[in-house]
Structures are given as C-alpha cells and as structure tokens.
Amino acid sequence: MSEASAGLGTGRASVGAVLDFAWTAGEFTATEVMAGTSLTRSTAIDAIDTLVSAAVLRELANARVAGSYRSGRPARRFVLAADLGVVIGVDAGDMHLAVTIADPIDRTLVHHRTDLDPTQSASARRATILERMSLALDEAQVPREDVLAICVGVAAPVNRDGISPPHPDGFWERTNPRLAEALQEWAPIVEIKNDAQLAAIAEGSEGAAIGCRDYVALVSGERFGGGVVIDGHVLHGAHGGVGEGVVFDHIIGVGSAFGLTYALPDQVRAAADAGEFGADSAMGRLARSEHIDPRTVLTAAAAGDADALLVTARVGETLARIVGVLGSMYDPARVIVCGAVAESIEPVLIAARAVLPEQLHLPAPQILASTLGAEVVSIGAVTTARRAARERAVPLLAERRLSAAV
C-alpha cells in the first residue's frame, strides 16, 4: 500500500497510488498514470475522478482547447491542485529564528530570519516563535486553517512526541519550550526535530549527501551536533539524542561541544597569549578585538596568512578528532560540515583531512563543506514538513472531503 493510501482507507489504494504519482508528475494524463503506477485504465480514471471530486486534483483544459490537439480524441489532463494549503518550516536555534512558509511542492512564499536573545525565558521564547509564525502567515496571506504540516528544528534532543529531556542547566527546555504542545492546534501534522537531524535531511535531499546512504551532517556553528544517516535512515534514539554533542566535552583534544564559531576566536587568542603572533600582525591586532569574526580568520588563511594558517591548522586538528569519533562510532562515507561558517571553512578542512587517517582504524570518511549555508536547518524543516503533507496531511484532507461528499 502506498504512503498516501494509508490516509484514504484500505479500499482506496488506487487513489493513494494516483496521489503519490501526482506529487512529482506536474501535468499528466491517465495514460501516464497507468505507466507510472501499473493501474489499469479504468482503475486509473476512477481514481483520478475521485481525487478531482475531492478538489485534490484539478482537470486542465484538454489538448484541443489548449491548442496542441492534432487528431483523434484529445486526452484529459490533470494537475495537483495549487490551493491545497501550505507548510511551515522553522529553524529555532539558540541565537536565531528562521520561519519559512512554503507550498507543499516546491515554492517558497515567505522566509524571514532574525536574531534571538539567548537569555530569553522559555515562555518568552515560545511567544516569540508563535508570533513570528503568525506574522509570516499574515504576510503570505494564508489563514492558519490552511496549514497542512509544521516542522520545527531546535537545538536539543527531541523524542518522537516532540519533547526534549531535561538538561542540567535547563538549556534543552528553553530551546524547545513545549513547542509540540503550543503548536498542536496549528496543523494536522506537527513535528519537532533536532536541528542536526534536519540538517542531515537537507544534505540528503539538496546538498552534499545526495546519493549517499551513510553520512553525518555536522552542525558546527554555535555548538557541535551530528545528524546521522546510516543505510539511508536518519538515526534517532530513545530521546532523539543520536549525535548529541555533549560527548565532545569528554574527548581529549576537543574538550567542548562549542562549535567553530567559538573555536576559531579561542585559538586566535590562545596563540596571541602564547606570543606566537607579532603584536602588529593582522592576527595580533585581531586578537585584541572584543569580537573576532571567524570569517576574518578563514579569509586570511585562504589568502595565505601564516598566522591564520596556524590557527586553522589547530582547529583542523580538533575537527579531525571529532570526525574520528564519528567515523569510529558510525562508519560514515562522508562527514559534511554544516552551517553559515561552512562557506569559508576549507582551510580548516584541509588541515583536518591531513591528520584524520591517524584518528581511526577504519577508512577515513570524506570531510566536505556544506553548500546550503545558514539555511541548512530551514531547508531540512521545510523538506520534512512537505513530506508530512504529502504522506499524511493531504491524504487525510482528501479522505475528509470524500467522506463529506458521501
């Protein structure tokens, strides 16, 4: 039975098969449905007509009206209805919030990204997320009842009910402030996911892991966390904690789950304190700055600055230890460094690749930089929401409309 037919009743497998086909078909005919689903002509036409009556499919003008008809009986043409609803993808990071309103196929309607105050209380953070989602829907001119599915990525482990376990410092409870409960009336399908797992989904669908069945998406900005895919499946765990970065607190030579956004400035200051930079050198002056932008260090290293290369070599050694742990635990073919920092991270990756083989006995995985930038979690959230709409929400919508018509 197809994914879609699960929401259409056990007697409607053919309707589900046609609905599955329609998602990626664009405009199509009954003949094309037959070729794509192995249904007979009469069964395919009956299923198509059922979905047209439920306003899930729309019948287009036939070939004669469209001007392409030449001879014979013109074929009926169909397309998935454009007004089924929308999905919402949210990236609720520790220090940022991105909200995307998209159609269930391929079009983005609204996308906004803003900074968050990391000292916000859980209740204030929840209110901010809901407010931003409401504003985005208003801008897209979409009522809440048209939302098919929502996926929110948070910087915390999340179990299958959307709940994060308690954290010793309350961090997970604050970054996932009971969002599953707060959003349960917003859409038929609401999923709260760990941000690294969504990054892995994004890399597999649009990024550096397309066609790869064994990889880790290493979110590396504010904190390290891994989204792990093995044999084509995203690993989850009892509490959603697979790939959780706290393990790096206990790895000699790493010592912290804080990501590259902090590791690069820390190494600049450490080298300056050790007298390894000239006081008037570019890195020496940068070390005295109140804020050190990691991209400044990476750009200097890419240009050949010896001091910056010293810093990136040391950070690369740390990254190699992290990848070595992931390689030993999960045996991935690729580790993809994700996040905004990835666009300029190549000097660190060059250093990491040079020392990685000595960190593990298995063949070393490729270390690649993500091309999806700061929006990698948002892309994964929208992809997941679209999948939920396709597999669950729209079949339920069709079932509801068909039942109402009986």
**What share of residues are in beta strands?**
15-25%
For the secondary structure, the number of strands is: 13
Whole-angstrom Rg: 25 Å
Distance between the termini: 24 Å
Major sheet: arrangement of strands: 6-5-4-7-8
For the report, how would you describe the main beta sheet?
5 strands, mixed
Shape descriptor: elongated
**Structure annotation, total helices:** 14
Q: How are helices and strands ordered from N to C?
A: HEHHEHEEEEHEHHEHEEEHHHHEHEH
Q: Based on helices, strands and strand pairing, what is the structural class?
A: alpha/beta
- Helix amount: 40-55%
Low-confidence stretches: none
Give the mean pLDDT: 91
Question: Which characteristics define this entry?
Answer:
406 residues, alpha/beta, 5-stranded mixed beta sheet, 14 helices, 13 strands, elongated
